[in-house]
Amino acid sequence: MQQSPRAGRDGDVLAVVSQSGPTLSFFDAATDRHIDTLDILAEPHEVCFDPTQRLLWCTTTYHSGYYHANGGRRTQLTVVDADTRRIVEVVDLAPEHGPHGLALDTGRSRLYVSVESSADRPGGVVVIDTETRRPLGRIDTDAPGPHWFAIDPSGTTGYATNKEAPFVSVVDLERGVLTAKVEVPGSEGLAVSADGSYAYVASPYAGSFFGPEGGGRPETGIKVIEALTASVVDTLPTDGVVLPVHLTSTGRLLVGELRTEPDPASQLGRQAPGRLTVFSADTRERLGSVEVGLFPLTITSSPDGRIGYVSCVVSSTVHVVDLETMAELSRLDIAKAGEPGAHGLAYVPRAD
């Protein structure tokens, strides 16, 4: 008899950001029971879990809205105790602003946070000491809108995707410098392979699909960047434009495809149900897909790689998927009545 994918998850928690809440909600990973909701500073976007400090780091990116239509950029990170579910500190990165992407290096006690450009500096990545919770410096990425950031397992190389710049920025984390620009026509989410040999990047920039119809739009897909040569060596095709990308511990590459219909009243279009599409990172074969909610925006997985979690901001839902059978196990409603919200996700294993 096959063991349930929920087995052995007692005490594990899924943390979910609602950007319109603005809240951080906690769910039992074994039963989906709602445990708690914490009010946090508006407007939170992404969240990551530091298992060493047992802290959640949450970016507050804008006062309202989203990348290409916002009410002003914020400067703060909210730090939350994952076990007591209380705010420990609000770290202000000013004059840096628009913090969004998060990448954690537990071995070096470093957190990397992408930030948007200002009049006097390009976009970049702020480096934070996770023990003192203080910034150590910044690395320029030479682009206005780095939005997601990922590092290789060695903690020596980082990749920043740039929504509007026609390249992915590659940075040397030890020297703190930009080392390469990989030609990609605007990019969204990304993940790095377990051995650091490849980066998988969603392209093109989704905003290019929300404007008027016209020719010249690049094909959607996942660009495969070889670390050794800092060049694109393959493309995994997708039917829809992709924002989130996540690599599981078992080598499954999870991508969230948007599906929209033209709508003159909305720059984002009329949303249709999105899809979670799964590839093998090793063979680059498409393994399957499953329908999810409206506008998938963030993906994570359980540490054993058996369960995927997809947050969908327009439907404000999180879809829990068995990655072995590609069946939806449940749906979590992250609702503030009448408003979109579900965004950042973090899986929090129980404390030993």
In short:
The chain is 0% helix and 54% strand. The strands form eight sheets. It has a four-stranded antiparallel sheet with strand order 3-2-1-30, with no helix packed on it. The protein contains no helices and 30 strands.
Written description of the protein model:
The protein is mostly beta strands. It has a single domain (15-348), classed as Methylamine Dehydrogenase, Chain H, CATH 2.130.10. It has no helices and 30 strands. It has strands at 13-18, 23-28, 34-39, 44-50, 55-62, 65-66, 69-70, 73-81, 86-92, 102-105, 110-115, 124-129, 134-140, 146-151, 157-162, 167-172, 177-183, 190-192, 198-203, 221-226, 231-237, 242-247, 252-261, 270-280, 286-294, 296-301, 307-312, 317-322, 327-333, 342-348. It is globular.
As for the CATH topology, it is Methylamine Dehydrogenase, Chain H
| Overall body shape | globular
Main pleated sheet:
4 strands, antiparallel
**CATH level-two architecture:** 7 Propeller
Number of domains: 1
Task: Give a topology summary.
Elements: E1 13-18, E2 23-28, E3 34-39, E4 44-50, E5 55-62, E6 65-66, E7 69-70, E8 73-81, E9 86-92, E10 102-105, E11 110-115, E12 124-129, E13 134-140, E14 146-151, E15 157-162, E16 167-172, E17 177-183, E18 190-192, E19 198-203, E20 221-226, E21 231-237, E22 242-247, E23 252-261, E24 270-280, E25 286-294, E26 296-301, E27 307-312, E28 317-322, E29 327-333, E30 342-348
Antiparallel strand pairs: 1-2, 1-30, 2-3, 4-5, 5-8, 6-7, 8-9, 10-11, 11-12, 12-13, 14-15, 15-16, 16-17, 18-19, 19-20, 20-21, 22-23, 23-24, 24-25, 26-27, 27-28, 28-29
InterPro entries: Host-pathogen_enzymatic-act (IPR051200), N2O_reductase_N (IPR011045), WD40/YVTN_repeat-like_dom_sf (IPR015943)
Protein name: YncE family protein
Organism: Streptomyces crystallinus
